[in-house]
Amino acid sequence: MKNKSKLRKYMPSVLLFLLFEAVAVTLWLTKGNLFYLLNFSYIGGCLGLGTALFAAGKGYARHFVQLAVGSYMLLYLGVISRENMQLEGFWYYLFLGVFEAATIHYAVAKIFGPLLFGRGWCGYACWTAMVLDFLPYKQPRKPRKEKLGLLRYVMFALSLALVSGLFLMKAAHLEQIMFWLFLAGNAIYYIAGIALAFLFRDNRAFCKYLCPITVFLKPMSYVSLLRVHCDEDKCIHCGKCLRVCPMNVEVNKESRRRKNGTECILCYECTKACPTKALH
Fold this sequence. Notes:
By secondary structure, the protein is mainly α. The protein contains 14 helices and no strands. The model has no long low-confidence stretch (mean pLDDT 93).
């Protein structure tokens, strides 16, 4: 029985790896490019190993995945391979009518993937959050400024307008421009993210107020298969889960309509803090 229980504990990690392996094989066969097999196998392997480490109670598990996947995407895909994996890269390939690089990335991680794993991207693979999560304000120390969240939609619109403008003006050397936009965009994100973290005393302030990717993530995350559940009969309303949640999710409610429910990044800090094991 104990062995079966242990195996069951690691089953989500195995399924996650197999999901990415299925994507890897499908893209390899349909696109005829071995890179996709290696790329998604690596990412799936990191996610599978990281979630298995988490299931084993290793406190460094999520940071391991963030560094392994985030650094790979930022440094290898972005800097070395010169692929713009930011939102502007998505618009670029979309306007070209090409299902490659950023469009595939967005389809898997940020548009259709969240139907299964919600905002797991934000918690385990985002290279911006990878750095921000090492800052000193892991638990928000100031109330969330809800109205500032509208800035995310402004950023989303500006990104779309920028790339649309480049296409309408028929700018030369677009591929090179996209690479420099990737470098400049990341520099701006890191500077803004660190500044906001210290201003609001909240590591995830950038995610809450400025990150444009949430415009894609939030709708799909609402119906996500993977989510934190709350057994409200076990909940004693001590508030510990609310205090440790980096995204201010009303996690002590089971309803999908709970406050900031689509903001959950699946870090599971709330489940660790719950004294009655009401969260799972």
